[in-house]
Amino acid sequence: MLLLNYNAFLLGAIIFLAISLSNFIYVWLCKIWKVRILEFSIFLNPWFSLLKRNINGVVYKLGWIPMGAYIKPLGMTEEELKDIPAEELPFSFSGKPRTLKVLFRFAPILVLLFVLLISLFTLKGPGNLFQAISEMYNYMAFAIKVMFDAHLKSEFVTMTNNMLVDKNIVSFALVIMITVYLVINLFSTLYAYDEKKDNKLSKLVSFIVIIFAAYLTFWKIPVFVISFFSLRQNITYLVSFFLGLYLIGVLIFMLVMFLIKLTTTKS
Fold first, then answer.
1. How many CB atoms lie within 10 A of CB 46?
2. What are the residue boundaries of the structural domains of the chain, listed by start?
């Protein structure tokens, strides 16, 4: 049984390229504001890392969960400042202007919005951007309705097939995935904002919203999507998607290691 699907593989690769781009933007911002970087990681690494190198005081890690990439600047939180030697305080993240913190917060969202825009362009062409947005909005609105009314499933399948005529299926999937992520990210941002308030009612409403968002993310949406495919198809798509994530992540980590060693040798 062939467990590879080109479109799912390409989707995973593009998603991780976007994630990695955010990481490199973080590095670039740290260089501009002279913030010391302690860790640079490709993939998440709870408990252990597949690869770990300490070069010029920066720990480079290759994790094993392909769900993200991150950097750890010196003094990321106010609590860490008390443990930082006085001579290193000028290079801490917390001591920098609020502008840097805002850019750190919104860098991944801006990258995803850029990828979303490119994906929408490829669906209908640059001259039909608003038509593409309108069609995708109507499609996703109907998808939400179908999630809670199984009787509309056949109509939804027909609508999907019509939507995919003469369209790039990878761009189509990217638009859906990024939109869902941005909406969930908005919920979590609002929840974090309300957590700082003393209003108990506001906190309760935010908590209910975030629980509902988690229910959609980890149960309702995945179950809804896999219900349209056979077990073999689901396995094929998942294996291909994660293979795309892993391959691009490993290649990026190897490229970073090569460039770091090259610049270290020259200096």
1. 8
2. 1-96+244-267, 107-228
